[in-house]
Design a protein that fits this description.
The structure is a homodimer.
Chain A (H helix, E strand, L loop, with lengths): L2 E7 L1 H4 L7 H11 L3 E8 L3 H14 L2 E5 L10 H9 L3 E3 L1 H13 L13 E3 L3 E3 L8 E6 L2 E6 L3 H15 L7 E10 L3 H7 L10 E7 L2 E10 L2 H19 L3 E4 L4 H11 L4 E5 L5 H6 L9 E7 L2 H8 L3 H7 L4 H15 L3 E7 L14 E8 L2 E8 L5 H25 L1
Chain lengths: ~425, ~425
């Protein structure tokens, strides 16, 4: 099995200014190709350290993929250092230069002269077209080793990888690993792991638990001659896990709770509407992350103040005065209200205290109420995350509100 | 200046299942302490490779901070490997065990026996309390080298770093670097860099350009005896950059466009309301990412269908039929509508085609209209990102709508 390392280049990553999402993307893609990723490394825009890291990586691995440091400015050194370490000369490519000039003229912007740095490529290497920006990707193969050089911006790097790099790596892709991930909500990581304790001992596939904001996951990974054979090894184990964990399981693989809910709504020709206080747009944002959500979602109301909860959703002023905005009665009236106003089949609502401060009452940060209103049911759940973490509380509460919709639809369509 | 490496542990990172946000967080925090981060490395849950990576990192650097691999399950090996490499014995700590038991009983859950693995600590080392979970952090110092072991979940790791690790690293923090970042919107990276071309040559502070979704940034970094001295070196350069880039500059440092808008609204006692189609909750989500946004934001409407644009915001059916949902007239009527319905001082709206598919017309993916309505002004802008990237298009359009509010308030309060 071919072994790869990912080498990210950029002082801005080491300073914490930007988040390295490329390594994650490339790792997931390489796993699908059956190429094993053994290490991620990040170094700054420093000639000596980049060269040392590349040499070390090449001494251990078949393939090194770099991202970043191909920009138009002086501190972008990846191209030169990689060519130097691999022993390739660089040469000016006038087709690329022309493409860069056209890119700017199509945008009606004058091209800064420095952009022409991006037209230098390794002699005898491969050039990968950049359909989203100006810096082309580059590939070099020598003595069984392969270096792939990709631009840093994720929206340039990812399409280039899919279109050009996957075919370039073909000779390295015999044998494959495949993973399937069972995703649960409402059970903790260690409780989940105990239910699958014997499976965690197995070798091929292996089973590994991990936790993710408000979720607990089990990853099943198998190796075989092909990706489809590896998946065949995973499936019975995944089925066994699902039967043990029952309705805690909401999805398989990268499927998110929002994706599952949109699927269920589509399958059952149902629509959903959202009424939010503390999550303030997070739920419709996540629902509409799913392309095609417009057939199941038409309206969401972010009612951040009591006045708007009353005016838009019809939450009674008495309820707000007596129980407060963060209460079960308010959550229920919000869900009923949004269903009435929108005409959707399901209304879901969230009201809570995301932190950092509380709402002036003695209610704790992390306390949230989620509710669901439908023609034949009304549900409400109290959530206490115990964390003073605004983003965590909002994300998890939004997830749990979506999960309430999943549980309702699954229950309804099962019976 | 002390040198540090960050070593992340977790096969799930190398498989691309989770995104490594810890390295970014720690890098930003260490930079503030004047500790230079030279490398990020990620290895899997593999004894031999983790031990090798730790030894190499210790041979180059004063401090190594690990994250991950402290969970309750068998594949969590970081604690044992680090103690072994540093030559520390482990011992059972009954206070920690008691704390873990209490954590579970407070949640009303039975403690899985495997959680007691987390009560083993290095003899002669330091224990860092985990206020958000069960695995304590650990510290070991020997022969001038320091290893800090932190849990993987970011919401456990970050507070532990702030409360316990910063004081633990005190002896390494003399001398400091400081960075200031100038953030712009509406100008490209290379055009921005050209305006600051001479500054990019300077040594202390250094100036480096980079691009981020829909933004172009210039980072100014200085080294000095103390953090405040380093900041003093940065400030005149930042001022010079701001004067050259004018109203393209929306903020300094980590300030986001939503933060800037919330600040401006607060300063001027104004309120904002949002009406969204394609961004569908992204703008209120981002406004309310800022704690205390409730004083400036009360209501947002996500009107994903034409019917809801008409019913909730009063967009005329004639406008929708004649120009379509993705048009300047619709964007303007949405902004006016939300201002009227909410009673806010400023209404902003977005309607566009986020992709992957278009809207059945010949309008291209990435075409969006943003509008602003206020008592004394109405603005509208057409945006064409040229990208078929749903998340990018939604993020950038939301940013630009917020930027429209910034430009309006800055202009109004200047005059």
């Amino acid at each position: 099995m071919a072994v790869c390392e990912i080498l990210s280049v950029g002082t801005e990553i080491l300073l914490g200014d930007i988040l390295n999402t490329n390594s994650r993307y490339l790792s997931a893609e390489l796993a699908k190709l059956g190429i094993s990723v053994l290490r991620h490394t990040t170094v700054g825009d420093n000639h000596e350290r980049l060269a040392a890291a590349l040499k070390t990586a090449l001494s251990r691995s078949d393939i090194v993929i770099t991202t970043g440091g191909l920009g138009p400015t002086e501190d972008d050194i990846t191209r030169d250092v990689c060519c130097e370490v691999m022993g390739f000369e660089t040469q000016f490519n006038s087709d690329i230069a022309k493409g860069i000039e056209e890119y700017f003229s199509a945008k009606g912007i004058d091209m800064p002269a420095s952009n022409l740095r991006q037209a230098y490529v390794p002699k005898g290497g491969e050039v990968f077209e950049n359909t989203k920006g100006t810096a082309p990707g580059l590939g070099m193969k020598k003595d069984g080793k392969c270096v792939v050089i990709l631009p840093g911006p994720p929206y340039e790097m990812a399409p280039m990888f899919e279109q050009s790099v996957i075919p370039y790596l073909e000779e390295y892709t015999d044998g494959a690993i495949a993973s399937m991930t069972v995703r649960t909500m409402g059970i903790g990581e260690s409780a989940m792991a105990e239910k699958a304790a014997d499976l965690l001992e197995s070798e091929n596939p292996t089973v590994a638990p991990y936790a993710k904001k408000g979720e607990a996951l089990l990853r099943v990974t198998a190796k075989a001659g092909s990706r489809s054979e590896a998946l065949e090894l995973c499936r019975p184990v995944v089925d066994e896990i699902c039967s043990r964990l029952g309705s805690f399981v909401y999805g398989i693989d990268s499927e998110s709770i929002e994706q599952r809910v949109v699927e269920l709504l589509k399958e059952n020709n149902m629509t959903i509407a959202t009424a939010e206080s503390c999550t303030a747009g997070y739920i419709p944002k996540r629902i509409t992350d799913i392309p095609g959500a417009s057939s199941v979602f038409e309206f969401g109301a972010v009612t951040y103040s009591n006045e708007m909860k009353h005016k838009v959703l019809g939450v009674s002023n008495e309820t707000l005065a007596r129980f407060g905005a963060v209460s079960e009665p308010t959550a229920r009236e919000m869900a009923r209200g949004i269903r009435r106003v929108s005409g959707a089949d399901i209304g879901i609502s969230v009201t809570g205290i995301a932190g950092p401060g509380n709402d002036g009452t003695d209610k704790p940060v992390g306390l949230c109420f989620i509710a669901l209103s439908a023609k034949d049911a009304e549900l409400c759940e109290k959530i206490e995350t115990g964390k003073n973490d605004r983003e965590y509380n909002r994300y998890v509460t939004a997830s749990r509100a979506l999960n309430l919709a999943r549980l309702y639809i699954e229950q309804k369509t099962k019976g």
